[in-house]
Design a protein that fits this description.
single chain, 773 residues, mainly beta, 26-stranded parallel sheet, 7% helix
Length: 773
């Protein structure tokens, strides 16, 4: 029986491929009935008051009947689309070769319907529209009074914007959404802080438009009188403003979105060919008082056979990501034997021939390349949104852990021990995002969890999140698979709310493979310009990093954690802030033996320690090569991080932590060099300790030389062995006479069977003067 089922499914798949081939051929053969269908000829008035939706629908129906090559033509007028049946005002299903031409037409939509839905189509073009919504799908106001102890604030709704309590009465349901957003008082920019979950909204004075908003927030530190507050209004309906599904060769060109229904601006799902967006703008209408354009994503891209091309666009004012590209897992509900599995997903199904990746976050089992041999629908389990199927794979799933319970989406920590199947052939791979402008909005310009992406030539200016965030997600949402083979090139990042580029892989044995970050410029960044973790094989080359916007003691230009096989070369860092603690911060999980650095140029504050200028190294001694001394000037596998602490019986001071990260029996010296002014002083004092108290200890030698003298003039003045976890004080006389000197602290480390044994700390470096009679 299974063999016959497999045959029938393969036959269906072949027929489906043939059908699409016929459609694509038909698209290139313009129908003899193809014509131009003007909406005015079907009754559209275009006065901004008359409901022109029925006329537009009639024109579209005529174009579809005429066949490929037909065009639906609007004029440069204002068309109002009132509420209609169905998700979208204009819907195309199973057709090809139709064009919708706006010619600058303004569409005043409604908060129930989307504008356009394209399903199972090929060769569809939409261009030249301006989309807006009346009434709005959000409301806004000013915070005039805050009561942190009560977890509430008083909100005055702006004139011309809906009172959510009054709207709820009219709709006979709760109309306001339970997530809000606090914006700065003098700018359309999200304030840093926790997400504002709304517990309740009560009316204080309808005539004065005053509401009391109760938040489920533990802290009100980010909310102040004068701030703006925005939240969504859901009148009804489902879907996105523009939805494209199960289609190919779709072009969306030169259009503007000022507002739309409550939902995604664009939803691209389950497409088997390109969706190409060029010249779109999601933005505020000139002169508007609106604080945002929409509450949700600009482009929500799920489960596509190939990622979209999004280019030459301007995106601003969204309270979620500009672009989000990922796939959700199929959860394995039953093991039926003979490599057959019952799987469940919220919306999409695999196809015969698809390659799947099985991932169980705990204990961290990753299995790639599972091939789908057959797919049998299992409708008895499905509800309106879920898809249940029985699939046959080419081999068993090692370490399988079945999904328990009924919650498929969004997630929960219980799923960390369940096996999810991520479709590698339908995850949006091969996306291209280029030459766009990302302006002020709440979250990330690009959130991508899929492989094979290109993010190139974009300007990211003032987004509330990161410019690019690559990574999977587990624990709350479950989205993946893992980013890989991705290029981030020739972009400009300015004043982002979070790290301009962040790579963060979640879960055991998960990696972002082959990531290239090159030719980008950074300025006005917060904690780090690049915060990278979980990379296996990457290139960071030719980037230019200007100073960040925060105090130097809280920032590091490049942070790298839990990564291996990285090449970092030709980068230029210009950051002269005092107190900067490091240029490259490497964690102890970075594989130094596979790390290569060269030709990185740095312009830093004059008092910046020399070691930190050159860490990490120009090159690393590779595994299997002869052991040689590891000098800071050439090769070292170490990182140096500064923080603050309080040595025993001392005042709180700067604490430097030096950690060797070389492996496989290597040994060497860490050199820590810094200037000191000994004018009127007799020497220096400092404290040291071992971070672990284990191992043979680390030998410390202190040397000095006059500023400007060659390195051969360094003279030893102190020796000690650091073994104890307790802070040990040192006082070192330096017979230099008055004047500036360079101090060099040499830490000689033993073989790194456990590099953590050789982690040492030094604190409280200062000059001292002896009491003299």
């Amino acid at each position: 029986m299974r063999a016959s089922s497999l045959f029938s499914l393969q036959t269906i798949t072949t027929c489906r491929v043939f059908r699409w081939a016929v459609v694509l051929v038909a698209f290139h053969i313009i129908s003899a009935n193809a014509a131009e269908f003007k909406v005015a000829d079907f009754g559209a008035v275009g006065d901004g008051k008359t409901d022109d939706a029925p006329a537009a629908r009639r024109a579209l129906a005529a174009a579809i009947e005429a066949g490929p090559g037909s065009r639906v033509v609007f004029e440069k007028k204002s068309y109002r689309f009132a509420r209609q049946s169905g998700d979208a005002i204009l819907a195309l299903a199973g057709v090809s070769g139709i064009a919708l031409e706006g010619n600058g037409a303004e569409i005043i939509g409604n908060p129930w319907n989307g504008f356009l839905r394209i399903s199972d189509c090929a060769g569809i073009t939409m261009r030249g529209f301006i989309l807006d919504c009346d009434p709005l799908s959000f409301t806004q106001g000013d915070i005039i009074e805050v009561a942190p102890e009560e977890g509430t604030f008083v909100l005055r709704i702006h004139d011309g914007y809906a009172n959510p309590v009054e709207l709820s009465e009219q709709l006979e349901k709760r109309a306001w959404q339970k997530v809000g957003f606090t914006l700065e008082a003098d700018a359309r920019r999200i304030k840093p802080g926790p997400i504002d979950h709304i517990e309740n909204i009560g009316e204080m004075d309808r005539s004065k438009r005053l509401l009391r908003v109760d938040l489920r927030a533990e802290s009100f530190t980010h909310i102040a009188p004068g701030d703006h507050f925005v939240f969504g209004l859901h009148h009804g309906g489902h879907g996105a403003l523009i939805k494209v599904e199960r289609s190919t060769d779709i072009r969306l060109v030169d259009y503007t979105i000022h507002g739309g229904k409550f939902g995604m601006n664009h939803s691209f799902s389950d497409n088997h060919g390109r969706v190409h967006v060029k010249g779109a703008k999601i933005g505020l209408r000139p002169g508007t008082t609106h604080l945002v354009t929409s509450i949700k994503d600009g482009f929500h891209v799920k489960h596509n056979r190939v990622g979209p091309i999004i280019e030459d666009c301007t995106l601003e004012g969204m309270m979620d990501d500009s672009i989000n590209i990922s796939v959700c897992p199929y959860w394995v509900k039953e093991d039926l034997g003979d490599n057959r599995y019952l799987i469940a997903e919220v919306a999409f199904s695999p196809r015969v021939g698809d390659r799947l990746m099985a991932y169980t976050p705990v204990p961290g089992t990753v299995v790639r390349g599972l091939k789908v041999l057959s797919v049998e629908p299992s409708g008895k389990h499905a509800n309106r949104t879920e898809k249940w199927n029985i699939i046959t794979l080419d081999r068993p799933i090692p370490g399988l852990s079945l999904h328990q319970g009924g919650n498929l989406f969004p997630g929960g920590p219980d799923k960390l021990r369940f096996t999810g199947l991520y479709n590698l052939d339908a995850c949006g791979q091969g996306y291209i995002v280029r030459n766009n402008r990302f302006l002020a909005q709440r979250r990330h310009a690009l959130l991508a969890r899929s492989p094979g992406g290109l993010f190139e030539g974009n300007t990211i200016d003032g987004v509330g999140g990161s410019g690019v965030w690559l990574g999977n997600e587990i624990g709350s949402f479950y989205e993946g698979p893992f980013p890989a083979n991705t290029v981030i090139r020739n972009n400009t990042f300015r004043d982002t709310g979070q790290n301009p580029i962040r790579v963060r892989i979640n879960g055991r044995n998960a990696w972002a493979r082959n990531i290239r970050i090159e030719g980008n410029t950074f300025s006005g960044w917060p904690a780090a310009a690049m915060d990278l973790s979980g990379i296996q094989g990457g290139v960071i080359r030719g980037n230019s990093i200007e100073a960040g916007r925060e105090d130097g003691t809280e920032a590091v230009p490049v942070v790298i954690r839990s990564s291996e096989e990285l090449r970092i070369s030709g980068n230029e860092i210009r950051d002269e802030r005092s107190g900067l603690t490091a240029v490259f911060d490497l964690s102890d999980e970075v594989d130094a033996a596979s790390l290569v650095m060269s030709d990185n140029r740095m312009t830093l504050a004059p008092d910046f320690p020399k070691l930190m200028r050159i860490l990490p190294p120009l090159a690393i001694q590779m595994r299997g090569q002869d052991i040689r001394p590891l000098w800071a000037e050439e090769d070292t596998g170490a990182f140096l991080r500064a923080g603050s602490g309080q040595p025993e019986e001392g005042e709180k001071s700067r604490v430097w932590t030096l950690h060797p990260v070389w492996k496989n029996g290597l040994r060497g010296s860490l050199l820590f060099e810094l200037p000191a002014d000994l004018t009127g002083a007799d020497g220096i004092s400092f404290s040291t300790r071992s971070a672990t108290g284990l191992g043979d200890g680390v030998a410390l030698t202190v040397e000095w030389k006059p500023v400007g003298a060659p390195d051969g003039d360094y003279r030893g003045c102190h020796e000690a062995t650091i073994r104890s976890k307790k802070w040990t004080g040192h006082q070192v006389r330096i017979p230099s006479g008055d004047g500036p000197v360079l101090l060099r602290f040499r830490f000689d480390c033993g073989p790194a069977d456990n590099a953590g044994y050789d982690t040492v700390q030094i604190a409280g470096i200062d000059v001292f003067m002896e009491d003299k009679p």
